[in-house]
């Protein structure tokens, strides 16, 4: 096995720095996805004449096309047309956020739908004000149910961040590539990068699975 | 304008071949690995279960891009020969999505009502007969919608092959960008439409398979909306 | 108290209620019987404003439920108006529909606080009284999931009564219960019928209960009134063939 422990040890600091960037991207991207997903879900549900249909088409479109191209569109199309120039990092956050918002919107919708119809009817029968029906009855039952799905999407996002190296984001993979270019040895940096991903995503998915089991018992 | 459009279009279309081959190859490998690993996850033999669980967790837990880089850049350094980009791409697509597919297979087989399994035992069928003649045929119909989504994911992932110069759609587009800098909308617009069309093709085929499968089981196929969500429960 | 005038209700192509006329006097306990699909549950759901009628009018306590008066004409009611009327009507469901994210006491105090504007103290005092009436005082702090079906249904009854409705609708409230738990719920309902003057409309398959408690029984079929009368008269000497058929089948099963 052609493994150089020295090189491995030397690459780790740089890779860890890249990992921090990866984690930041995931965190911020997830925040955008969670919040924007609510907006999408509400608009869809609200049935506003033209806007709701447009949102539906947009969501389906984003889900059916590669994230990489969406990243390129944001990075190369937006500056010339709107004059706004965003750093690769910010572009990455927005691209990830919007892309995954299209998935979280569906999760929210399914979560609300999963609340038994009888709950709505009982709330109506008791003449509860509309706002209270949502905050007191529906959301407390819907939110726990959607958490596992949201967790899984965050983990997926975490694993998709490396593609952002196409626009120059310095994440784990980009750092590994840089190390490889300098030392002419690719085995150690790339393997360690892979291990780093595994070290974070595997425990995370175990946690989500456990959460799923607990929620399933509700 | 229109002259540029035609040039851009034909240039990008040159990548369609590679994309389709990558997708088909990836899907084929995914199906094979999904069933092998999926059934292995259900094996009574602990070692077999362990090995397939290892495969599934490693390939689900690491990033597809990282896997791609590793297979294309690291493997040659270790074993001495370099893989053709398209082939490396198909390998990664298959390995990665096969891991997710294994869970789909496992889940679908588990979802077949236990009564079916018990009926097969009562009829004295061997374990292999139980699986292949009773459980799997019923499970396959359940698998088709999630596989539909998985295959579309795979199609989207072919864009990642642009990192290793496999000559597919996304890479062709990127090569054009320095030349046709002002027509970025056209470039990406064409790419997006192509991917959409390919996704529709996949969905149409999968839905047709679903109908065939449901009919063979004596069920009326489930009506689905655009997204694949069931609009009603399956009838018998 | 309740008045249906030529009410028509269909679901798609399926007409459930055809020009239905019937009335219920204040304080009456009326039981609706009949085969499934005859429209009995639809009547309750219309009263609870869970569904809208296609034509005709419904009045509760002299006020229109389905429409509002505007400048002398009748206009379909809007949500705001409905919410005002709805407070006077309560419903107990077959599936109980207790809120799983609240404890028993909060289930009962929720609507009085949020919809009637009671203070927490007042609502809780009322809830405690009601829990005692249904025999579940010690369960105030429990979770709905920790209760048996019969207990949950009794909490649901207390919850509906906490709104002090003029009209109480009971939709097959014992059909989802294990047989041995049914008696407890029926006992509570008998008590309510005897001690309050709430107008009660009940859909049930419990014929003995209907006989014991109702002031009047109405037999429905295919969205129309087939026959009505006092329990004694209807159960012992049904005059319509459809009623006779139905009762024979139901009593044979019991």
Structural class estimated from helices and strands of chain A: mainly alpha
Distance from N terminus to C terminus of chain A (CA atoms, Å) equals 50 Å
CATH homology group of chain B: MetI-like
CATH topology type of chain A = MetI-like fold
What is the secondary structure topology, with strand pairs?
The complex is a heterotrimer of chains A (218), B (236) and C (254).
Chain A: H1 5-46, H2 49-64, H3 67-82, H4 88-113, H5 117-125, H6 130-160, H7 172-183, H8 187-216
Chain B: H1 2-13, H2 16-41, H3 46-61, H4 64-79, H5 85-111, H6 114-122, H7 127-157, H8 169-176, H9 184-216
Helix pairs in contact in B: 1-8, 1-9, 2-3, 2-5, 3-5, 4-5, 5-7, 6-7, 7-9
Chain C: E1 2-11, E2 14-24, E3 29-33, H1 40-47, E4 55-60, E5 63-64, E6 67-70, E7 73-76, H2 79-86, E8 89-92, H3 104-116, H4 120-133, H5 149-161, E9 167-171, H6 179-195, E10 199-203, H7 207-213, E11 216-221, E12 224-229, H8 231-236, H9 241-253
Parallel strand pairs in C: 3-10, 3-11, 8-9, 9-10
Antiparallel strand pairs in C: 1-2, 1-4, 4-5, 6-7, 11-12
Helix pairs in contact in C: 3-4, 3-5, 4-5, 5-6
List keywords for this structure.
heterotrimer; A: 218 residues; mainly alpha; MetI-like fold; 8 helices; C: 254 residues; alpha/beta; Rossmann fold; 2 domains; 4-stranded antiparallel β-sheet; 9 helices; 27% strand
Any overview of this molecule?
The complex is a heterotrimer of chains A (218), B (236) and C (254). With 218 residues, chain A is mostly helical. Chain A contains eight helices and no strands. Chain A has a single domain (5-216), classed as Orthogonal Bundle (MetI-like fold), CATH 1.10.3720.10. Chain A is flat, with a radius of gyration of 21 Å. The N and C termini of chain A lie far apart (50 Å). Chain B is mostly helical and 236 residues long. Chain B has a single domain (2-216), classed as MetI-like fold (Orthogonal Bundle), CATH 1.10.3720.10. In chain B, 75% of the residues lie in helices and 0% in strands. Chain B is built from nine helices and no strands. Chain B has helices spanning 2-13, 16-41, 46-61, 64-79, 85-111, 114-122, 127-157, 169-176, 184-216. Chain B is flat and about 70 Å long. The relative contact order of chain B is 0.14. Residues 232-236 of chain B have low confidence and may be disordered. Chain C is an alpha/beta fold and 254 residues long. Chain C has a six-stranded mixed sheet with strand order 8-9-10-3-11-12, sandwiched between helices. The longest helix of chain C is centred in the last third of the chain and has 17 residues, at 179-195.
């Amino acid at each position: 096995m052609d493994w150089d422990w020295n090189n491995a040890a030397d690459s780790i600091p740089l890779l860890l720095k890249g990992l921090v960037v990866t984690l930041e991207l995931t965190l911020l991207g997830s925040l955008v996805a969670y919040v924007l997903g609510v907006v999408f879900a509400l608009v869809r549900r609200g049935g506003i004449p033209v806007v709701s249909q447009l949102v539906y088409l947009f969501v389906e479109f984003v889900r059916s096309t590669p994230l990489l191209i969406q990243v390129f569109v944001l990075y190369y199309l937006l500056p010339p047309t709107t004059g706004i120039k965003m750093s690769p990092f910010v572009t990455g956050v927005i691209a990830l956020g919007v892309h995954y918002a299209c998935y979280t919107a569906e999760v929210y919708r399914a979560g609300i739908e999963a609340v038994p119809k009888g709950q709505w009817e009982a709330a109506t029968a008791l003449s509860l004000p509309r706002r209270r029906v949502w905050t007191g009855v529906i959301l407390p039952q819907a939110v726990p149910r959607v958490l596992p799905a949201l967790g899984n999407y965050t983990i997926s996002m975490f694993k998709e961040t490396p593609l952002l190296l196409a626009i120059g984001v310095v994440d784990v993979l980009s750092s590994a590539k840089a190390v490889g270019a300098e030392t002419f040895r690719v085995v150690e940096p790339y393997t360690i990068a892979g291990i780093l991903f595994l070290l974070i995503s595997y425990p995370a998915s175990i946690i989500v699975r456990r959460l799923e089991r607990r929620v399933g018992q509700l | 304008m229109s002259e540029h459009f035609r040039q851009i279009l034909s240039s990008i279309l040159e990548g369609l071949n590679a994309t389709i081959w990558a997708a088909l190859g990836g899907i084929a490998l995914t199906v094979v690995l999904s069933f092998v690993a999926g059934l292995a996850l259900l094996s009574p033999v602990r070692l077999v279960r362990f090995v397939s669980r290892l495969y599934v967790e490693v390939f689900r837990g690491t990033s597809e891009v990282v896997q791609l880089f590793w297979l294309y850049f690291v493997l040659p350094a270790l074993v001495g020969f370099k893989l053709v980009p398209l082939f490396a791409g198909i390998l990664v697509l298959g390995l990665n999505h096969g891991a997710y597919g294994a869970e789909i297979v496992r889940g679908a087989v588990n979802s077949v009502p236990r009564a079916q399994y018990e009926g097969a035992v009562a009829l004295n069928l061997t374990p292999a007969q139980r699986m292949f003649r009773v459980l799997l045929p019923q499970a396959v119909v359940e698998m088709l919608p999630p596989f539909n989504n998985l295959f579309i994911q795979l199609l989207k992932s072919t864009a990642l092959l642009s990192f290793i110069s496999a000559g597919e759609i996304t890479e062709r587009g990127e090569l054009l960008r320095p030349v046709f800098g002002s027509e970025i909308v056209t470039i990406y617009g064409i790419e997006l439409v192509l991917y959409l069309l390919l996704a529709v093709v996949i969905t149409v085929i999968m839905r047709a398979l679903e109908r065939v499968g449901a009919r063979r089981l004596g069920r009326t196929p489930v009506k689905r909306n655009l997204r694949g969500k069931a609009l009603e429960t399956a009838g018998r | 108290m309740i008045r249906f005038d030529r009410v028509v209700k269909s679901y798609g192509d399926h007409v459930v209620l055809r020009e239905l006329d019937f009335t219920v006097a204040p304080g009456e306990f009326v039981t609706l019987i009949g085969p499934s699909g005859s429209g009995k549950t639809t009547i309750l759901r219309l009263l609870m404003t869970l569904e809208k009628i296609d034509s005709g009018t419904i009045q509760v306590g002299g006020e229109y439920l389905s429409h509002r008066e505007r400048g002398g004409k009748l206009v379909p009611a809007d949500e705001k108006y409905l919410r005002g009327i709805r407070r006077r009507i309560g419903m107990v469901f077959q599936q109980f529909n207790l809120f799983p994210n609240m404890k028993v006491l909060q289930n009962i105090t929720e609507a009085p606080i949020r919809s009637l504007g009671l203070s927490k103290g007042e609502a809780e005092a009322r809830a405690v009284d009601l829990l005692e009436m249904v025999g579940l005082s010690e369960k105030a702090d429990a979770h709905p999931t920790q209760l048996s079906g019969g207990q949950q249904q009794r909490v649901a009854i207390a919850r509906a009564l906490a709104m002090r409705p003029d009209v109480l609708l009971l939709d097959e409230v014992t059909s989802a219960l294990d047989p041995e738990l049914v008696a407890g719920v029926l006992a509570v309902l008998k008590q309510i019928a005897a001690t309050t003057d709430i107008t009660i409309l009940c859909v049930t398959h419990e014929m003995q209960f209907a006989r014991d408690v109702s002031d009047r029984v109405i037999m429905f079929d295919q969205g129309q009134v087939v026959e009505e009368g006092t329990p004694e008269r209807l159960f012992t000497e049904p005059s319509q063939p459809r009623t006779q058929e139905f009762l024979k089948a139901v009593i044979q099963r019991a």
